[in-house]
Amino acid sequence: MGMTMSEKILAAHAGLESVKSGRLISAKVDLALANDITGPVAIKEFGKSGTKTVADASKIALVMDHFAPNKDIKSAQQCKTCRDFAAEQGIENFFDVGAMGIEHALLPERGLVGAGDLVIGADSHTCTYGALGAFSTGVGSTDLAAAMISGECWFKVPAAIKIVLHGKPTRYVTGKDVILHIIGLIGVDGALYKSMEFVGDGVKNLGIDDRFTICNMAIEAGAKNGIFPVDETALQYMKGRFVREPRIYAADDDAEYEKVIDIDLSSLKPTVSFPHLPENVRTCNEWGDIKIDQVIIGSCTNGRISDMRAAAEILKGRKVAENVRCIIIPATNRVYLQMIREGIAETFIEAGAVVSTPTCGPCLGGHMGILAENERAVSTTNRNFVGRMGHSSSEIYLASPYIAAASAIAGKLASPEDILK
Amino acid sequence: MKISGNVFKYGDNVDTDVIIPARYLNTVSEKELASHCMEDIDANFVKEVKPGDIIVAGENFGCGSSREHAPLAIKASGVSLVIAESFARIFYRNSINIGLSILECPAAAKAVKAGDKLICDLDSGVICDVSTGEKFQSEPFPPFISEIIADGGLIPHLSKKGEL
Predict the structure, then answer these.
(1) Which of A45, A71, A127, A382 to mutate to test the interface with B (most CBs of B within 10 A)?
(2) What is the mean predicted confidence (pLDDT) over A2-26?
(3) Residues whose CB falls within 8 Å of the CB of residue A179, separated by 6 or more in sequence, listed in order
(4) Given CB atoms, is A268 within the 8 Å cutoff of chain B?
(5) Which superfamily does A272-420 belong to?
């Protein structure tokens, strides 16, 4: 029996000829990531172990992004804990304000993750790097501490779901609409413990940023990882930035999948996830009249340059509705700079939006856009759980940058076509 | 090991954001985290939970973020065991790693009611609802996982075994 793409990457890192789903392995990781929330817990566990030095400082990255720039004294202390640890251990991939960006946009941009890698991160959205053909997955802080100590992590090889993408998405349908549609189809535990392997002739019609968005939200279906084949689009992205040589793995023709799901990209409509679970999806014809108070465009899901361009396309020459706060958060400083160069930042500010420094900020209810009682936000982030962005009675509608920008103008949930009419 | 306590009952897809909201993740103090445990879906939990109590929930318990603060907050609140129909992947792993006992048992998770008293034998996997007299069989952990939990988590376990 052949292997899936994920199985091949895991086997290679475990020093094995082949692995099969269900097998427990210990494998070497190419990069272990933590942030200013999960890092301090990992550092505390590292301290408990009595170990003095990390196994390989070059294989650790610490990104100060969740509550940075620091929102209060306690978060400042947490960043300081990470900063001091990085200095003490000689961790060069320590990204602080000025160099930092949201981890899952930053690490691919800096070329620290890429095809064939095995990456673990103490952040559930670590699964993002599957867009480049890496096996990457979220773990807790203790697993991360163990990897800092040993350079390895144990895994149960996951079973896989094959998602075959066909055709080409229509004008305002993005990677976000694709993944929300899939989560709506299989549910928030529809891929629990499993790999989601994306294949098919439709892959070539998705840009790399769309693929990042899709893999990013694989966890929202419970998946261990999401992964795309390495094609010209992925290689082009990694060219000149990936610090290692891409190692290209492809699934065998006789690889075993638990389930095969066919998606016709051309049939998808702009899709929004209603409160309070990502699986509560509705397409643009089913939204009704949902008045909103805030729009967030950013996050590790949708804070990349193509997301900013999409939002700018809609906001250009238009105004954010009265009583709506539109907060735009480029995911990294490079994205921010590119926005300035292309005149996108100006477009946003002229439209009445505010442009923030890179941060995870409001996505997890940290800072920079917290919701009051009964308020509603349309957000390009990844979770709409109870209380995620603020008060426990507030509501989050997850959507693409096109829909978020259109909603900011309309003052209610709206698709680009509603605005452009 | 035997565990005995009263039940706090919750539904499906209890996510880590309601177990411990991110606004409190600016600390690694387990006591402080515990003081906000479950507050967005059950404001009374913190007031009413007693050492040894048991959380019983539906499918996909602990879905969402990878924050280890979630099982840490539950454990520090005094809860001795979480029983669910199923667990989200990262939460499951984190619970073992920090030494929080968990059991997957759909039958018990469906039948047991809030306030029931349970006696659970972690070695045999038998869950007994003292309030109704019903018994349920769950799959117990293999000894090496039970040892990690008994030692208080992965790092203390490895230290004890001299593997660090």
Answers:
(1) A45
(2) 96
(3) A213, A214, A216, A217, A218, A220
(4) no
(5) Aconitase, domain 3 (3.30.499.10)
Distance from CA of B130 to the nearest CA of A (A): 32
Instruction: Work out the minimum CA distance from B121 to partner chain A, whole angstroms.
Output: 26
Q: Do B89 and A145 touch (CB under 8 A)?
A: no
User: What CATH class does A9-264 carry?
Assistant: alpha beta
For chain A, percent of residues with pLDDT exceeding 70: 100
- A387 contacts B26? CB cut-off 8 A: no
Q: How many CB atoms lie within 10 A of CB B58?
A: 17
- Mention every residue, 6+ apart, whose C-beta is less than 8 A from residue A204: A231, A233
ipTM: 0.94
User: Among partner residues A40, A49, A224, which is closest to B164 by beta-carbon distance?
Assistant: A49
In this prediction, residues B77-87 reach a mean pLDDT of 98
Delimit the domains of chain A by residue range.
9-264, 272-420
Name the band, by pLDDT with cuts 50, 70 and 90, for residue B164.
confident
Q: What is the pLDDT of residues B137-161, one digit of tens each?
A: 999 988 888 999 999 999 999 888 8
Please choose, from the candidates A39, A221, A223, the residue with its C-alpha nearest in 3D space to the C-alpha of residue A123.
A39
- pTM of the predicted protein model: 0.97
Which among B18, B41, B154 has CB closest to A142?
B154
Same fold, A9-264 and A272-420: yes
Q: CB of A289 within 8 Å of any CB in chain B?
A: no
End-to-end CA distance of chain B: 27
Residues in chain B: 164
